[in-house]
Structures are given as C-alpha cells and as structure tokens.
Amino acid sequence: QVQLVESGGGLVQAGGSLRLSCAASGRTFSSFAMGWFRQAPGKEREFVAAINWSGSDTDYADFVKGRFTISRDHAKSTLYLQMDSLKPEDTALYYCAVSTQYNGRRYTPSSVSEYHYWGQGTQVTVSS
Q1: d(C-alpha 105, C-alpha 66), whole Å
Q2: Is the Cβ–Cβ distance between 98 and 2 less than 8 Å?
Q3: Per-residue pLDDT for the chain (128 aa), expressed as one digit of tens each?
Q4: Beta strands in the chain (DSSP E)
Q5: CB contact at 8 A, 96 and 35
Q6: Which residues are CB-contacts of 62 (< 8 A; sequence separation ≥ 6)?
Q7: Which end of the chain has fewer surrounding CB within 10 Å, N or C?
Q8: What are 34's strand-pairing partners?
Q9: DSSP-derived secondary structure for 94-112
Q10: Tell me, what's the pLDDT at 51?
Q11: What's the CA dihedral at 24, 49, 90, 21 to 10 degrees?
C-alpha cells in the first residue's frame, strides 16, 4: 500500500510560480515511477509530467514543457513539481500518482490507467 499527500497549491497571479510536493509513505518509494496529473472542472484528468524510478528520465505534456519541472528526493520520499510562468489555463486540481508496474528502467508512464495509487489533490488557481 502507498499513501500520497500533496501540498503546495494555492492562488497565484499569471506569470508566477508554485512548487508542489507529494509525500509518499508505505511501499518502497524509490522503486516506482511517479507522475503528476491535473483535472479542471468539467474536464478529464490529464497527464502533466512523469519521472522514472531513479529520477534519470522525465516526460512532460507539451503544454508544460519549458515551464514545469518534475523531480524526486528518495531520502525524503517526496515528489516535486516546480511550476513557473503559470497561466490561467493551468488552474486545476493537481494529483500525484504512483505506478507499481515495471516496464524498464526508463519507464515514465503518461496515462491514467498506468497508475495505481493517487493522492487527494491540491488546488492550483492562477488569476489573470
């Protein structure tokens, strides 16, 4: 079992920055790929970023490339999402997730169905 708790969301003006954190507990954190997703009202949950088990490989949705950075700290069992140059369209509930399947050392899953544990989410609101 894995427990995930997100934090760091809030209200920020367009062009600002936020850093989301996801504290993991339970099964061995360092063994699994992890990711961030977001869901805006009335829309489906969408992929934002993913990182492989070691932190050596990352993947991003096109709409956040160059603005967001995913990272992980194994010593702290924590996943991060640094969000810069935020836009109003980034407003959403942001979730972290863990994938417990293994598809190679560089595995960075990008679909909801590839993830098995989810946090409760943290709200990010970007004002114009």
Answers
A1: 24
A2: yes
A3: 789 999 999 999 999 999 999 999 887 778 899 999 999 999 999 999 999 999 999 999 999 999 999 999 999 999 999 999 999 999 999 999 999 988 888 999 999 999 999 999 999 999 99
A4: 2-7, 10-13, 18-26, 33-39, 46-51, 58-60, 68-73, 78-83, 92-99, 117-118, 122-127
A5: yes
A6: none
A7: N
A8: 51, 98
A9: EEEEEE-----TT----SG
A10: 98
A11: 20
Residue with tokens 């509930």: 93
Amino acid at 93: L
The tokens for 83 are 């969000």
With vertex at residue 75, the alpha carbon angle to CA 10 and CA 73, rounded to the nearest 5 degrees, is 45
* Count of residues in the chain: 128
> How large is the C-alpha radius of gyration of the chain?
14
Residue 16 neighbours by CB under 8 Å, 6+ apart: 86, 126
- Nearest Cα to 11, choosing from 70, 91, 85? 91
Quick one: pLDDT at residue 124?
98
